[in-house]
Structures
1.
Amino acid sequence: MTVARKQSKCPYCFETIAEEATRCKHCHADLSKKKKKLFANLNNFRIGFLSGILFTLIIWALFYFWLSGAG
Ligand SMILES: [Zn+2]
């Protein structure tokens, strides 16, 4: 039994294409933009989330050192 490649449908011509395809082999539509945008949004979200945590940690560290230094 062979393991079939993951497949999806081209949103333009509805032919079956490989899921990782960046260009439809049937109608040659560019399928990379949608994925890139999704990943960019995901990266922006992740970067914002991480910098938020980092900022909070730095504030807490400063606050802690300020308290221990003053106390
Ligand atoms: Zn297509």
2.
Amino acid sequence: MELRILGCSGGEAEGERLTGLLVNKSVALDAGSLTGALTVPEQIAIRHIFISHSHLDHICTLPFFTKNVFGHVEAPVEIHALPETLDVLRRHLFNDELWPDFSVIPTKDQPTIRYTEVEPERAYEVEGLSITPIRVNHLVPCVGYKVEDGKDAFIFTSDTTITDRIWEVANATPNLRLLITEASFPNDQEWLAEASKHLTPAMLGQELKKLKRDVPVGIYHLTPGDRPEMLPELEALKDPRVRLLEQNAIFQF
Ligand SMILES: [Zn+2]
Ligand SMILES: [Zn+2]
């Protein structure tokens, strides 16, 4: 399995892209950086996009992506997400007001994108991968994803505050090679992390006690302006599994 980190920042700034992962060139998790990180031919190669939740930093390149691939795809690109998330996309994004409704363009029968509902804890088989949504604890309905290819697995928690189920799933995944999770705000902004349902490095430290596996833990979603404060706080956890997830990194499992 090849995993490419298109973007992993909690905010956008020059050289820092929003959340997006690409697996085996044809399956994306979240769409915060599809157009900024990929050439048009690379975008056209994407067949499935699994969205974790409706927040803008995880979906914002979908409109520009659909415009780029329009007319170049033989079958619709499938957008997989919770029903609540798809509802937001339908009502607030592809609504002909903010952006044209590419789920009926060019035609209803052969559209550019097709919405597919996912149900937590159910495995979806696409492009030789098995992808399982796991519910996490965020401000809006949100799922992380376990991605497996029959040999290896990784888990992306997406945005979450204190949660349990995805750590249980990680502990029960023997072939787990990497876990990606978040830290969004510095320790002195715990009130903000609690209000917006994210984690600080200290809260992450508590969460990592639930992970009984010796696997690399890639941290993403740092707020760009808070990085200098947060990096020492992450180091202070003294957890050898913890490392910063880096934009453009490619993992081969
Ligand atoms: Zn979010
Ligand atoms: Zn986010």
